[in-house]
Amino acid sequence: MSPIRIGIIGMGGFAAWHHNTIARLEERGQARLICTCDPQAGSFTLEQQNWRFAERGVAVFGDYKAMLAACHRDLDLLVVPTPINLHAEMHRAGVELGIPVYLEKPPTLDYLELEEMITRDRQARRASLVGFNFIIEKPRLALKQRILGGEFGATQGASLMALWPRPADYFRRNNWAGRLMMDGRVVLDSCMGNALAHFVHNMLFWLGGPEQFSWGEIAGVRAELYRAHAIEGADTFFVEATTAAGATLRLALSHACAGQSQHAETVQCEKAEIRYIVGQQAEIRWRDGRIERLPLEPFDGLHDNHLDYHRYLRGEQSRPATTLADSRPFVVLNDLAHVSSGRIAPFPAALLTGLRDEKEQKDYFNVAGMQRAVEAFITQGAWPGPAGWGRDTGARATPADLPRFHDTVRAMLAAR
Predict the structure, then answer these.
(1) Domain 138-297+324-415 has CATH 3.30.390.50
(2) Where are the domains of the chain?
(3) What is the CATH superfamily name and number for domain 4-131?
């Protein structure tokens, strides 16, 4: 079995994780890094030494176009872990040269741009992979199959609680963090659209059917968006969506918090409630009182996603785990959340406390009552805005309202 020959665009940020993963696969003869590039390649001298580029024969370029011009005939795969607003043009460059593309999540957060990418990808010899890492977890796939098989009765809804603290300097890590737009184009970097996108995509996966690799289609969305940090976009989302199949999905997500990160995926079925916590355990609470616990084995999402996509490229399986078309419900949900909310409300100053982590030497915001508001929304559908957070809940937005999306984002930016 010949190793998959790979080019990676970028060295910093999440691209470094891809470099580490490919180096491990290369040691086992499963992959070979042919080339990479970065506009500041000279700033990564130490990393290049640690990754042993010289010994491995890796060509380094300062521009992805120059890299592809020189190396495209030698590549089986192009990995694109770059800023969100660059994904579409880099995906296009790979497809037009006949190179399959591993595109980091999110593929884009602009529904129109996604449709262009889907159309382009249909012309490719191999479908692109979008790197939502957790879909291929074996326990997740087994539970999805049990849901589709009717073991738990009809699926009624699902919820995601995810509170992931982020310090102020997280939003200064690059020039696109927390941005709504750049150079007139949508970015929409946020907890929902980026850092927690894996988990949101997971929820739509639970609600999809009748095939295993399917995602719930969005019928309507209501949302409240907030910010505590000095950014363009939102750092906190309360979102309620209905699917075409009639299920209700609730999301409570925030970076405006302190302490330990916490998250939980819950699926409500007629006969049982399924609770899935990535990296910990899955639990099935049957309505008759039984409790079934499923320990989750260690899972390296990036490593396993690469291997899974390599198997597809070799013709060993019929499809990538998540295609661009599979990403449509996620992008539509994200866009309609902005349309519904209409504005990003600042948290009332009286609720905000700045916290200094002396060990990390970093500053966090904490919103008084956040945990209580999350629990009330997830379990009862109680919106925090009218209950004291100083805003009305957004009106229901449907896919027919998507043409309002770009004007809504521009208005949010102007109001900032």
Answers:
(1) no
(2) 4-131, 138-297+324-415
(3) NAD(P)-binding Rossmann-like Domain (3.40.50.720)
Bridge partner residues of 157 (DSSP): 248, 268
Same fold, 4-131 and 138-297+324-415: no
Give the mean pLDDT per block of 10 residues along the chain (416 residues).
96 96 98 97 95 98 98 98 97 98 98 98 96 95 98 98 96 95 95 98 98 98 98 98 98 95 97 96 97 92 97 97 98 98 97 92 94 97 96 98 98 95
12 is written with which tokens? Answer: 């910093």
- Mention every residue, 6+ apart, whose C-beta is less than 8 A from residue 28: none
Taking the CA atoms of 275, 277, 278 and 284 in sequence, report the sign of the dihedral they define.
negative
pTM above 0.85, yes or no: yes
Q: Which residues of 322-357 are buried (b: 16+ CB within 10 A; e: fewer)?
A: bbbbbbbbbbbbbbbbbbbbbbbbebeeebeeeeee
Mapped onto helix, strand or coil, the DSSP state of residue 202 is: helix
| Burial of 100 (C-beta count, 10 Å sphere; 0-12/13-18/19+) | buried
